[in-house]
Design brief:
It is built from 15 helices and five strands. With about 375 residues, it is an alpha/beta fold. It has a domain of about 240 residues: 3-Layer(aba) Sandwich (Rossmann fold), CATH 3.40.50. Helix 3 links the parallel strand 1 and strand 2. Helix 4 packs antiparallel against helix 6. The longest helix is centred in the last third of the chain and has 26 residues. The chain is globular, with a radius of gyration of 22 Å. It starts with a helix and ends in an 11-residue tail after the last helix.
Length: about 375
């Protein structure tokens, strides 16, 4: 065999592998989690000011488009359902490939649960690993999340899992993910208008401490050390929910660990009155996730928190914003992106948010007034 023939074979193999990777991207199961990750990859380099990482409470609760419209700050969620804490550090690494956020935000509810109780449905693990682009970091994530090496092959090559989805290649929403980059209209946020009332307890007032599961404490210790090593600014939060007694004790324990490491910890359950949360109206599914009315209230509160604790203290591009703000006539002491043509897609997302809130809030109040509640069995 000549060198020319060998070269042709190698080129052919490389082309096949390249096509295999991108076809796999297309046939991965579609849905809002895939849209969120694909949307993140499509964002222009170094245009995301804050990344929030966590589980399903994140994307219906903190509305990035609203924050942008009100403050000019770009916040994007890398959130998935039942996201296991072990994935957190690797998602930070993934974000840093293309972005240099001024702030990483971590939603901490899942850190109170034992890891073995989060493994019942490995689809939730795949919502992380199978929504990452192929890379060395993806391999590291799989190795960390899938304990048994014999089970990792279908994670490394997830086409084994999704090969039966080949017919979905005819769908534009799948074909458009060929490069795994396509804008998400709502910038990762998902508006919900269902209602599921929740009891308002006093569990958030509990001050006792209870250790979190050993594996989660190990992951948190490692994450805090990693953030220090990389000199990354971080905020740890609990979004409002129907917190149980044992969970609140563990949240208090997490708060101690985080603040001892020098980072802010915001337990929003301590501020539900300031937020104005109505437990009969503002949750979509009986105390776990907020609907769009709850999202508006939480986001409004969160904006004030960001302003007082980060914006006013020089976070979000203070150093490089002065000249830009002077040129645009703005008086803010941070890099306000509103009106910048580079961020037009965020202006569009804000307009969509306004439309979604107008329509969604009407539906929420109608459902609440007429006792039309979320169906747990149907997920509606």
């Amino acid at each position: 065999m000549t060198k020319k023939q060998v070269a042709k074979i190698l080129i052919f193999i490389l082309i096949v592998l390249w096509l295999l990777v991108h076809v796999t991207y297309c046939i991965r199961t579609n849905g809002d989690v895939k849209d969120r990750f694909v949307g993140f990859y499509s964002e222009k380099d170094n245009t995301i000011d804050a990344v929030i990482i966590g589980s399903s409470p994140v994307y219906p609760c903190i509305a990035g488009p609203m924050i942008y419209g009100d403050m000019g700050i770009t916040l994007y969620p890398l959130a998935s359902n039942m996201q296991r804490p072990v994935a957190t550090k690797y998602l930070v690494e993934e974000a840093l490939k293309t972005q240099s956020p001024d702030l990483f935000i971590f939603e901490m509810r899942m850190w109170t649960a034992e890891d073995e109780n989060l493994l019942g449905n490995m689809a939730h693990t795949r919502e992380v690993t199978d929504n990452m682009k192929y890379s060395l970091n993806r391999i590291k994530t799989i190795n960390a999340m899938v304990e048994d090496p014999s089970e990792r092959l279908s994670y490394y090559f997830d086409i084994f899992k999704y090969h039966s989805n080949w017919k979905t290649l005819a769908l534009w929403e799948q074909l458009r993910t060929f490069t795994y980059e396509y804008p998400d209209d709502y910038k990762g946020f998902v508006p919900f208008s269902t209602v599921g009332p929740a009891p308002k307890t006093n569990n958030a007032a509990i001050t006792e401490r209870e250790a979190i599961p050993a594996e989660q404490e190990e992951y948190l210790t490692d994450l805090l050390a990693y953030l220090k090593e990389k000199n990354l600014n971080a905020l740890f939060v609990i979004t409002p929910y129907d917190v149980q007694e044992d969970e609140q004790k563990k949240i208090n324990y997490i708060s101690d660990m985080v603040t001892a490491a020098g980072y802010n910890f915001l337990d929003m359950d301590q501020y539900v009155d300031e937020i104005g949360l109505d437990y009969d109206v503002d949750f979509k599914d009986y105390g776990t996730h907020t609907n769009i009315v709850g999202a508006y209230k939480v986001t409004r509160f969160f904006e004030e928190y960001l302003k007082e604790n980060y914006v006013d203290k020089g976070t979000f591009g203070l150093a490089d914003s002065m000249s830009k703000n002077m040129e645009s006539g703005k008086s803010s002491n941070y890099n306000d992106h509103r009106g910048d043509s580079k961020y037009k897609s965020w202006d569009d997302a804000y307009n969509l948010w306004l439309e979604a809130y107008e329509k969604g809030s009407e539906e929420v109040f109608y459902n609440a007034e007429n006792g039309i509640y979320y169906d747990l069995e149907e997920g509606e």
